[in-house]
TrEMBL record:
<comment type="similarity">
    <text>Belongs to the FGGY kinase family.</text>
</comment>
<dbReference type="Pfam" id="PF02782">
    <property type="entry name" value="FGGY_C"/>
</dbReference>
<dbReference type="GO" id="GO:0005975">
    <property type="term" value="P:carbohydrate metabolic process"/>
</dbReference>
<keyword id="KW-0808">Transferase</keyword>
<dbReference type="InterPro" id="IPR043129">
    <property type="entry name" value="ATPase_NBD"/>
</dbReference>
<dbReference type="InterPro" id="IPR018484">
    <property type="entry name" value="FGGY_N"/>
</dbReference>
<keyword id="KW-0418">Kinase</keyword>
<dbReference type="GO" id="GO:0016301">
    <property type="term" value="F:kinase activity"/>
</dbReference>
<dbReference type="InterPro" id="IPR000577">
    <property type="entry name" value="Carb_kinase_FGGY"/>
</dbReference>
<protein>
    <submittedName>
        <fullName>Xylulokinase</fullName>
    </submittedName>
</protein>
<dbReference type="GO" id="GO:0016773">
    <property type="term" value="F:phosphotransferase activity, alcohol group as acceptor"/>
</dbReference>
<feature type="domain" description="Carbohydrate kinase FGGY C-terminal">
    <location>
        <begin position="264"/>
        <end position="460"/>
    </location>
</feature>
<feature type="domain" description="Carbohydrate kinase FGGY N-terminal">
    <location>
        <begin position="3"/>
        <end position="252"/>
    </location>
</feature>
<dbReference type="InterPro" id="IPR018483">
    <property type="entry name" value="Carb_kinase_FGGY_CS"/>
</dbReference>
<dbReference type="InterPro" id="IPR050406">
    <property type="entry name" value="FGGY_Carb_Kinase"/>
</dbReference>
<dbReference type="InterPro" id="IPR018485">
    <property type="entry name" value="FGGY_C"/>
</dbReference>
<dbReference type="Pfam" id="PF00370">
    <property type="entry name" value="FGGY_N"/>
</dbReference>
Length: 514
């Protein structure tokens, strides 16, 4: 039997799976960490943290596999996907990192956004790239580094996405996959599937800072260097496959390979996306080449910055009693206790609404100065009301993106697939079904982007063909169907939700520190 390894570098952890050519999981490992947040609305990560996690996860998977009698020679490829790395990692001519990576969550580039809007033909930039202007995008973060870290800028040879940097260390080869390149935003020509000299010139970013080699997500970048063989337990020369942006890779893992299929990935953030062949940046969503059939298909998505992060924030700040009580339960998970209480609260949380804008917001709001809010509170409300309101607020943000996406999609399937940590919650899956109006399906296996990376590894190594890759390896199960009465209530509440941000925007901006 032949095997592959899929690795996904996430915001808070890296995960790896070792699977056979049929997708059966043989071994898996995860390594946790946290992004650095040195100032409000800043979020960055040291590249060494990611590389250490990747090597640990691969080595542990190989070690577990060897205990099952699997020889290193049977492992035919490794693929690395990663979180959206924002600016990417600036490296010098010796490929040494010059600065931490400003990740997707970072919102510091607000002045650079205003500069772009004032000095650049934004309509032309949108037409070239299929993307808009916001501090989410990597190119605005690059401009921040140019202005605030001139020494770093002067020494920068390349900006490398996290997966491309890790693959360089493993192989000595520099390449960027098309999904990661497209997600940078203002530097990639989405029609030509190449860097845009015109856009780079407008922004004043040297084209030489963009790696010359662009590759498909299933392409082999290079072979594993011999220096890593012993540490990882793999043979030198093992093919390392390019991978891509985790949201697109997770969407691929969930079986989305044709126009109209749509998937919500809800972890620390939320990314809802669909497959399309065209894009219009005026609809307010983000686009990039898909990780499968990427020369024809686009992955078009919108996202909430703090989805699962909103839930984690509420738990850590206000639910100490549940955290302590959970220590005496078999699974030790406070969310079980919180959901038991929230299930007793009616849909709509008795009038409480939550805006999940705890780090500004991405689509369709696109406002780094947006802030979170509870509204509708009274003395009647309890912690359980607020917890349910948080779950509903993130679900309303999901619907907000779906409504925006419907304006540009050729079609959308009549079912919604949800992957990520949120899929562990029966209550949340039902809330999403009731708010969006879609039956909700999840993956039977507890896997996400790492499985998509493994599938790309198998395709890149020639263990499966494109038809088999399109079929995928996972099993979908229906988790919830919308309830007509709750759906009607939520439709009314969504109208309030959508009106809240425009009404509160001036006050949110006045509250921002100067």
């Amino acid at each position: 039997m032949e095997y592959v390894i899929g690795v996904d570098i996430g915001t808070q952890s890296t995960k790896a799976l070792l699977v056979d050519r049929h997708g059966t999981i043989v071994a898996q490992h995860a390594s946790s960490y946290q992004p650095d947040t040195p100032r409000p609305l800043w979020a960055e990560q040291k590249p060494a943290v990611w590389f250490k996690a990747v090597t640990e996860c691969i080595a542990r998977c190989v070690e577990k596999a060897r205990a099952e009698g699997i020889a290193p020679a049977s492992i035919k490829a490794v693929c690395v996907s990663s979180l959206y790395g924002g600016s990417g990692i600036p490296v010098d001519r010796d490929m040494r990192p010059l600065h931490a990576c400003l990740i997707w969550m970072d919102r510091r580039a607000t002045e650079q956004v205003e500069w772009v809007r004032s000095h650049i033909d934004v309509e032309r930039l949108q037409a070239i790239t299929g993307n808009g202007v916001d501090s989410y995008y990597g190119y605005t973060k690059m401009l921040w580094l140019r202005e605030h870290q001139p020494d770093v800028w002067a020494k920068t040879r390349y900006f490398l996405p996290p997966n491309a940097y890790v693959i360089y260390l493993l192989t000595g080869e520099v390449a960027v996959d098309h999904s990661s390149a497209g997600n940078i935003g203002g530097v990639y020509d989405v029609a030509a599937r190449d860097w845009s000299d015109e856009a780079l010139d407008m922004l004043g970013i040297p084209a030489t800072m963009m790696p010359e080699r662009l590759v498909e997500s299933s392409e082999v970048v290079g072979g594993l260097l011999s220096q890593w063989g012993e540490q990882l337990g793999l043979e030198a020369g093992t093919p390392i496959v390019a991978g891509g942006v985790d949201a697109a890779v997770a969407t691929f893992a969930a079986g989305a390979t044709r126009a109209g299929q749509h998937v919500a990935m809800i972890g620390t953030s939320m990314c809802w996306g669909y497959i399309n062949q065209s894009v219009d940046a005026r609809h307010g969503l983000i686009s990039m080449p898909h990780v499968f059939n990427g020369q024809q298909d686009l992955y078009v998505f919108g996202g909430a910055i703090t989805a699962g992060a909103s839930v984690a924030w509420f738990r850590e700040q206000f639910c100490h009693a549940e955290i302590e009580a959970a220590r005496d339960t078999p699974n030790g998970d406070p969310h079980v206790l919180l959901e038991q209480a929230a299930q007793q609260i009616p849909a709509g949380a008795d009038g409480v609404l939550f805006l999940p804008y705890l780090m500004g917001e991405r689509s369709p709001v696109w406002d780094a100065k947006a802030s979170g809010a509870f509204i509708g509170l009274s003395l009647f409300h309890t912690r359980a009301h607020l917890y349910r309101a948080v779950l509903e607020g993130v679900s309303f943000a999901l619907k907000h993106n779906i409504v925006a996406g419907q304006r540009g999609a050729q079609s959308l399937d009549e079912r919604l697939i949800v992957v990520g940590g949120a899929a562990h919650s029966d209550l949340w899956m039902q809330i999403i079904a009731d708010i969006t109006g879609y039956p909700v399906l999840t993956i039977e296996q507890d896997v996400e982007a790492a499985m998509g990376a493994a599938l790309l590894a198998a395709l890149g190594a020639g263990l499966i063909d494109r038809d088999a890759a399109q079929q995928g390896w996972i099993t979908l199960v229906e988790r919830a169907r919308p309830d007509a009465e709750r759906q009607k209530l939520y439709e009314q509440r969504f109208g309030v939700y959508a009106d809240l941000y425009p009404a509160l925007k001036p006050l949110m901006h006045r509250l921002q520190p100067t």
